[in-house]
Write a structure and sequence with these properties.
14 strands, 29% strand, globular
Length: 340
Amino acid sequence: MSHHLDTPLAAQTGQLYIDDLYVFPGEGGTVFVMDVNSNVNGLHSEPGFHPEARYEFKVHFDGADFETLTYRASFGEADADGRQPLRLHVLTGGQAREDAADGDLVLEGLTGETASAGGTRIWAGRIADSFYIDLSLLALVNGAMAKGTAPDLSGWRPDTASNSFAGTIVDTIVLEVSHQHPQLRPGARTGVWCATKLATDAGGWRQINRAGHPMMWPIFWPTDTDFANPANTRHPSEDVSAAATYIGDQIAAVVAAAGASGDPEAYGRTVAGKLFPDVLPYVIGTPAVYGFTGFNGRTLADNAPEAMLSLVTNMAVPSGLRPAVAERQRTSKFPYVVPA
């Protein structure tokens, strides 16, 4: 029986829309966090995770074009209390990029509860969103990017900024893998991205959305709520040839209009080179930070919007918000998030 999973409408659900990716050191391991299904994304949203989808964390090592480690989470139908069974598989080597590969079952559990086995633990459920930004500031930069003009920040008042995500909720998957893992040992240089994939009527899988660096979709593809942009279905190995020139030119136009660089084209190319391929770099076991000093993972507290908006415009873009604005939405103990 067809589920009509190949129709455009089937993919247009918040359950498949990735809101954020975080990678940071935890209590003796590396933490991977994928947020989906925010109640502010404007898409059709049902509580929980899509029961016919896959949620994957992809890990590249030493600058490799392709991943050789994938953690794949999948979920069943919700029970009367809204809890969903979950399963976590791991795929290594060449299988890590093969949708047809089954991988090895690592653990099973339920949403809202911690499941652990062999140095790996996972928690998935509905949480209070720790992301923070005043969306009116984002709109100013979006407008400049779309038109190739200088951002008009003359009316922006950082001292009156408010967190547009205060009180919002998302569904999240928190995975922690011990530093004893043979590949994720301290010192390993990784590039991390995540993807949602939906089953097809033909029995295969279709990539719906992906994420690496924060703020890429809000800045460069802000209207892509129907998953129409090809960036959704690309593999990061295709990013440079497919999008680096286009994004570099966008940035160069904004920087040139603002007079923020003596060589706007070179600046645009440099930034595009930092952002593509769109994977989040992280050295295992080191302090994570996504900010002005560089990109090395991303913590729940990092002011990634301020860092990214300043990077793509080559000017100071103060957000007016600090990590304390969302400190109640994160904790120092696993699962590091606050259930809604």
